[in-house]
Design goal:
- It is a single chain.
- By secondary structure, the protein is mostly helical.
- Helix content is 66%, strand content 6%.
- About 3% of the residues have low confidence.
Amino acid sequence: MQNTAAHLKYKLMNHKILLALVLCIGGILPSAHAQKFAYVDTEYILGQIPEYRAAQEKLADMAKEWENQIVAYKQEIDKMFRDYRAERHLLSEAVKKEREEAIFAKEKQLDEYKKAKFGPGGELDKKREELIKPIQDKVFDAIQELAKDNALDFVFDKAGSVTMLFTNSKFDRSDEVLDYMGIVAGTGTDKKE
């Protein structure tokens, strides 16, 4: 889940930088007004959204299917290599070279397949972007709406890289974000259902 919340965390990073500046200035200027803070847990929020869970399952199924295909490729390459080793003493130089090239070509196909499916910008990344990003955007929009409605100056993500050594649960607005999104907290169902 940590990677899937990366987009939301990136957007919230600007708030973290701004917070650091405000805290520095606040220490210098004693007349600075009190800031209103809150935090949310995007991992918890995303885990409560049925569409997110369905998207995660779909991505896992796709990845498993592709992994199975990779295993099949490897088995085919292994068989080609075993057959070649068993027969190489009986083969002419031209046939040996042909078989070796076929094995290398199959290995290259396997590498290309892995990159196409799992590499940066590969099918898994594209599908994740297609399925997960709209959900993350909805969460971010709900957080912004919550912040505006409650006149919050800063909203932290508890699931992010910000270390929170103590959090008072009265400042946790995760369930309110779900409420803005029409999700019943704890059940993972839409309020409309």
